[in-house]
């Protein structure tokens, strides 16, 4: 087993990463490349699909090169990706016809309002598990087909392909042979019926999307096809696909009904395993497919927070009060508390549980004594407050308290944030030893499909705790902080309309 590895490709919102895992779930090699974010207009966020592919491919080549001399065998490739982001390309040339419209992009907000006014909310929630919001892929795909010159005509002739980022990577990895996605990614499009497990004709008609552009939908763990000669001389089976948040849920081994993880990356995404049941949220969570393995579909409730770690990047890149994300902790520790300053990070509106496309960011409660440290602290606290709001809504949906939270993602290295999170939630927060749980989850899904791991019982034992954060802050103080947060968020909501 020692020289046999799984290659995980983790295509995130801010960077492309490739990681090699061994049989005991350890990281053997990794490579990461950041790529360009495009903001052509306020509220718009785009990526260049070619840059996505190039950075992903280069990092994959780099990790393979690191084990080249070790007589290594790559048993399978697992793919995991930023979800909802839409790529449309020409089937003949393989060239994208427009930039990728990123999940954070709000350009279809008005159309979403029309759908809500047309009383589609209930049907869409029942069929897709989702809340109507420009976050999801369907309305972005519709925008490209309607706005790019000649796109609709070409789509109707079957000349265009649509995909979330997983489909785009696999198309390129196989030299244009495969146009597939998996159920987890399909469940984020607002076009896929998570009950019948098929593209929904009524919703395709509603949004005017020709079925010919759609990828075929597969399970999360099976051999879909093989990489072509460009990546490695021998074809490697591509054997796992999952959206990054679902992959992280799997990598965190949240296999039991009721287990919950929260990933702190660009945004924050909390998922609760609900087993074989679709729970129709009454508290603004979404229902989504967690994974499908061996014909069995597992569902999850999800609370999606749009801005989390990216508020720290904003402090770095736009406000300039830190030089690196890591510096935020030291800056925030220079003050004992937030000094009554609150930051609402609604830079691209608010996701769960508010779903306000028109909310915008705010820093409020400033006094003559407020300084950069208070703002840094308020930024970190805002991540924990948003998580609190989601956790409470989720508890209301599942009907019992959540007893512990497993955490991962780039921002969980921040001990101040993790401690404050435990303080605010009042439940233990478990940080595992492997923080790359997204990539690990995709590796597990791929490895299971090719028999690298026998079954989930074999991999379950690999999950281990690095640190458990327990609440320390007194409950009165927490209550006061939450009251301040609630007030601040109410001021930021519906800002753009006003
Ligand atoms: N020490 C830190 N404290 C707070 N946030 C951090 C820290 N280090 C990194 N981050 C944040 O984590 C995010 C990157 O996490 P990652 O999981 O790689 O995100 P993604 O997959 O969304 O690209 C960035 O937004 C960054 O600002
Ligand atoms: O790239 P991440 O880790 O920020 O994840 C993005 C989510 O998949 C968006 O739904």
TrEMBL record:
Catalytic activity: glycerol + ATP = sn-glycerol 3-phosphate + ADP + H(+)
Annotated ATP binding sites: 13-15, 266, 309, 313, 410
Residues binding glycerol, per UniProt: 83-84, 135, 244-245
Enzyme class at the top of the EC tree: transferase
Domain Carbohydrate kinase FGGY N-terminal: 6-251
Highest taxon, organism lineage: Bacteria
Binding site for ADP: 13, 17, 266, 309, 410, 414
Keywords noted in UniProt: ATP-binding, Glycerol metabolism, Kinase, Nucleotide-binding, Transferase
A single MF term (Gene Ontology): glycerol kinase activity
Activity regulation description: Inhibited by fructose 1,6-bisphosphate (FBP).
The protein's annotated pathway: Polyol metabolism; glycerol degradation via glycerol kinase pathway; sn-glycerol 3-phosphate from glycerol: step 1/1
Residues the record lists as binding sn-glycerol 3-phosphate: 13, 83-84, 135, 244
Any one Gene Ontology BP term: glycerol catabolic process
Entry GO CC: cytosol
Annotated function: Key enzyme in the regulation of glycerol uptake and metabolism. Catalyzes the phosphorylation of glycerol to yield sn-glycerol 3-phosphate.
Family recorded in the similarity comment: Belongs to the FGGY kinase family.
Protein name: Glycerol kinase
Organism: Sunxiuqinia elliptica
High-level lineage: Bacteria, Pseudomonadati, Bacteroidota, Bacteroidia, Marinilabiliales
Gene name for this UniProt entry: glpK
């Amino acid at each position: 087993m020692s020289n046999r590895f799984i290659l995980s490709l983790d295509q995130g919102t801010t960077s492309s990463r490739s990681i090699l895992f061994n049989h005991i779930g350890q990281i053997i090699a990794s490579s990461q490349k950041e790529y360009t974010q495009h903001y052509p207009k306020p509220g718009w966020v785009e990526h260049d699909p070619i840059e996505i592919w190039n950075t992903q491919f280069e990092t994959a080549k780099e990790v393979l090169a690191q084990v080249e001399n070790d007589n290594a065998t790559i048993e399978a490739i697992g793919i995991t990706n930023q979800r909802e982001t839409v790529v449309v390309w020409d089937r003949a040339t393989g060239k994208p016809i427009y930039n990728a419209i990123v999940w954070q992009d709000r350009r279809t907000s008005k159309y979403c309002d029309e759908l809500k006014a047309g009383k589609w909310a209930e049907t869409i929630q029942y069929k897709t598990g989702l809340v109507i919001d420009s976050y999801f892929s369907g309305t972005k795909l519709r925008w490209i087909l309607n706005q790019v010159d000649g796109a609709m005509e070409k789509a109707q002739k079957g000349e265009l392909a649509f995909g979330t980022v997983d489909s785009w990577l696999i198309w390129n990895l196989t030299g244009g042979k495969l146009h597939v996605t998996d159920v987890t990614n399909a469940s984020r499009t607002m076009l896929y019926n998570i009950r019948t497990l098929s593209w929904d004709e009524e919703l395709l008609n509603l949004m005017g999307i020709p079925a010919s552009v759609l990828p075929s939908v597969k399970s999360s763990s099976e051999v879909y096809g093989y990489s072509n000669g460009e990546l490695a001389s021998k074809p490697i089976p591509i054997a796992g696909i999952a959206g990054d948040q679902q992959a992280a849920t799997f990598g965190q081994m949240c296999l039991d009904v009721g287990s919950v993880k929260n990933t702190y990356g660009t945004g924050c995404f909390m998922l609760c395993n609900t087993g074989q049941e679709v729970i129709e949220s009454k508290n603004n969570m979404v229902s989504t497919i967690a994974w499908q393995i061996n014909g069995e579909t597992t569902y999850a409730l999800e609370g999606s927070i749009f801005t989390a770690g990216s508020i720290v990047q904003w402090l770095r890149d736009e406000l300039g009060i830190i030089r690196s994300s890591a510096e935020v902790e030291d800056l925030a520790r220079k003050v004992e508390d937030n000094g009554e300053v609150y930051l609402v990070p609604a830079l691209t509106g608010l996701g769960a549980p508010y779903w306000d496309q028109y909310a915008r960011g705010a820093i409020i409660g400033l006094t003559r004594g407020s300084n950069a440290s208070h703002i840094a602290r308020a930024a970190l606290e805002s991540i924990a407050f948003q998580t609190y709001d989601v956790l409470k809504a989720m508890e209301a949906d599942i009907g019992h308290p959540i007893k512990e939270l497993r955490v991962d993602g780039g921002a969980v290295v921040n001990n101040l944030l993790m401690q404050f999170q435990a303080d605010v939630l009042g439940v233990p927060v478990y940080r595992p030893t492997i923080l790359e749980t997204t990539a690990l989850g995709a590796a597990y899904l791929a490895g299971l499909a090719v028999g690298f791991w026998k079954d989930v019982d074999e991999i379950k034992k690999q999950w281990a705790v690095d640190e458990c954060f327990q609440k320390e802050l007194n409950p009165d103080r927490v209550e006061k902080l939450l009251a301040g947060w609630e007030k601040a968020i109410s001021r930021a909501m519906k800002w753009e309309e006003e």
